[in-house]
Amino acid sequence: MDQQMYHYATVSKALQELNDKGYTTDFNLEEDRIKKHSDDFEIQHIYRYEGESDPGDEATVYGIKAKSGEKGVFVASPGAYTENGAAKILLDMSIKGRSEQ
What we know:
Elements: E1 4-5, H1 11-20, E2 25-26, H2 31-36, E3 41-49, E4 59-66, E5 71-76, H3 86-99
Parallel strand pairs: 1-3, 2-5
Antiparallel strand pairs: 3-4, 4-5
């Protein structure tokens, strides 16, 4: 996995930068696709945000590319990491990618 980690001031700024780079699909709307076909996706960018004053500001933004070439984003809040959810699958993919480097 050739992922890059950048830090922008806000989640919305990260989403805008990714959109400018062609990451236009909202994979939050296609969570089942990620869960059923996780091998078809590669995480290329990860942006993590921790709410210093408000835990509600915490989020992880993933820039994802499908084998088909489609690029998009998935935004996960801390509560999204359920056992069978797409956010958990993406977290596992990012951890696996770090161990392979």
